[in-house]
């Protein structure tokens, strides 16, 4: 018996996907519009991408965002992984419950509150606001996401692998870098990607903690949109969508390849 | 009593007063919170001995092994290996290696890299490492698999890689945690013999933890039967089987009939036991017992003889055939005595056609010699 879609299924799928993707498709299409008016189509053109190249303000903002994203994601990954190891490995230590709560709190904390409290803190310690304050703020709110991702991987980690490495003469440090880290690497990488994406797209916390000369891309876009949507913004967003899509496609392909290899290995093992 | 030796006829350092133990556990106790995993245990193991720790799960045998490997520290007591106190020495500096129950092969490394891992930690020269890897791969007959990853190997091959990896550093003691536990029955039997051969060839001291009595019996020079953190008996396999010191040991190792009773008389070399089942047992006396003492008589099923006709003499029981199980080499009978107790009898099928024609619900007579079983007081 073949699998066929009923009329209801077709209609609901069309509506569902339209709702999700039509706005994005529109944005991409209008980024290639020749007209300056966002809602009037007047022919295909890449003029706004060229314009974008000359728009220093947007390019600077993108560069700031990239630097903040890479730096904060990297630091958050290191700290988040360390927290995950502590929580996954040590089931009983003083203040464990408190630590768990404090690590996970930013996950549910409204961004406005996180942003405001960070702002108050930076003002209190008289820290000049700018690139570093945004980076610090991003580290503090993305770290918990890394912890969640890495901890879930560590729970299924076979600890006898670490015992075996130590039994064979590896010190705890060598064991971590040669056995544990290579094996939890996909989770750590996923944590980094997540932290990077969150940092890339954050508007609220960045607005609170930034200072002169450190305008991030979301802030720039937001402030420009208030003066009216220009096709340049569409072009920037299209580039961002392209980057994210390429990332997703690569991740899917890698995963697929891993599954194929796993199936082949199982066959090989069965053949002896 | 007759002496029951080890499998290797000329190897018995534990009875030689001149030989000193290679490894000693001295009054070792290990507590996890309130739970006493190992309870004031002392044990001596000799060089190039194949030693088995046998017991039910939770008896403390794995904890003992993990303390030796350095993953757990004794709460009190000392572990002395080759004259060196192991206290405070971390696992990565101990001259012992362990083969893990799950094998714990590093999935991101090839077979050769797995084996070389321990050697690299010693900063051994590259050429020497590859020579040693080849050597141990040959030992476990896996020369052609050096480049494979663990998930490209079958269960039996993984087991051999794990063994090769733990032998590569030439440890003073090799620890084996349920080494054959994950293999299927047929493969387990083959691997048992390979493991025994390997040990005789290398003369390394092997300590194995197992809950499988058959595995312990086939492989070990001596077995320590453990229960609740204590050692109940340490002896060669034949002695464990034929001369268990307690009911638990008799029951845990192999099949056994246990008759509880009181000593009615103990004269000369004989003891008469009045069992709770109402019949008397006349047995050879090899432990000191007093009249009136509560004892148990343990009797292996294959030491009993079964007949369809009445038999005269002492030590005869009569009952109904309750169950018959044919295993091929032996047939097992369950005879239900009139008291309701079940007696297990194993008959060796020495000829193709059994002269004994017994079937369900027939009357059957069971007898045994005076030295067939053993009086135990614990």
Automatic annotation (TrEMBL), chain A:
Domain called ABC transmembrane type-1: residue spans: 62-254
Transmembrane segments: 12-32, 68-90, 102-125, 131-155, 176-198, 233-254
Keyword annotations: Cell membrane, Membrane, Transmembrane, Transmembrane helix, Transport
Source organism of the structure: Jiella pelagia
Location within or outside the cell: Cell membrane
Name under which the protein is recorded: ABC transporter permease
CDD domains from the UniProt entry: TM_PBP2 (cd06261)
Topology of this chain in the membrane: Multi-pass membrane protein
SUPFAM superfamilies assigned to the protein according to its UniProt record, in alphabetical order: MetI-like
Domain of life the protein comes from: Bacteria
Major location category of this protein: membrane
Pfam families: BPD_transp_1
From TrEMBL, chain B:
Alphabetized InterPro entries for the sequence: AAA+_ATPase (IPR003593), ABC_SmlMolc_Importer (IPR050093), ABC_transporter-like_ATP-bd (IPR003439), ABC_transporter-like_CS (IPR017871), Mo/tungstate-bd_C_term_dom (IPR008995), P-loop_NTPase (IPR027417), PotA-like (IPR005893), Transp-assoc_OB_typ2 (IPR013611)
One example GO MF annotation: ATP binding
The protein's name in its UniProt record: Spermidine/putrescine import ATP-binding protein PotA
Family from the record: Belongs to the ABC transporter superfamily. Spermidine/putrescine importer (TC 3.A.1.11.1) family.
Catalytic activity: ATP + H2O + polyamine-[polyamine-binding protein]Side 1 = ADP + phosphate + polyamineSide 2 + [polyamine-binding protein]Side 1
Enzyme class: translocase
Record's keyword terms, sorted: ATP-binding, Cell inner membrane, Cell membrane, Membrane, Nucleotide-binding, Translocase, Transport
Name of the gene this protein is made from: potA
Chain's role: Part of the ABC transporter complex PotABCD involved in spermidine/putrescine import. Responsible for energy coupling to the transport system.
Pfam family for this entry, one: ABC_tran
